[in-house]
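job 3f2a | input accepted
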Amino acid sequence: MRFGSESRHDGEDGNPSGPPTWRAGDLVAEAAPVRVGFRGRRSVTGVRLDARGWQAHLRVDELRAMISGRVGVVESHGDGPLLFLARVGAAAPDSIAAGQTAGLPPDAVALLPAKEGVPPAAVLDAEAFESFARWVETIPEHR
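job 3f2a | predicted structure (143 res):
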């Protein structure tokens, strides 16, 4: 699924700790705490992404590193299946992610299940990723 300029923000969604929900096609993002550390004992500011039955919990500080260009891949946290949010071309050439992103536009960002033969859960074009990045920047980081 590719998502482009149809990204939008919802109005009131009952989420008192962050901005309204962000959407692009079937990809939905919502501010949500992420459990990290030994046995998930610590909670950090995060984002939950939902797309086509896949759910990823990503740390806001890691997403901001991706937005700034310091990293090209962000790994999900938690008990669910492992997913990556990755810029096309950022994965090692012999990785599963490289195969999943082959043929995508070079400025795209994809939500990738860490399973061979499984297509991306979502693909954001440059415009949609820029919208997502602006949304992420509105999330207050709690220490």
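job 3f2a | The radius of gyration is 14 Å.
job 3f2a | closed
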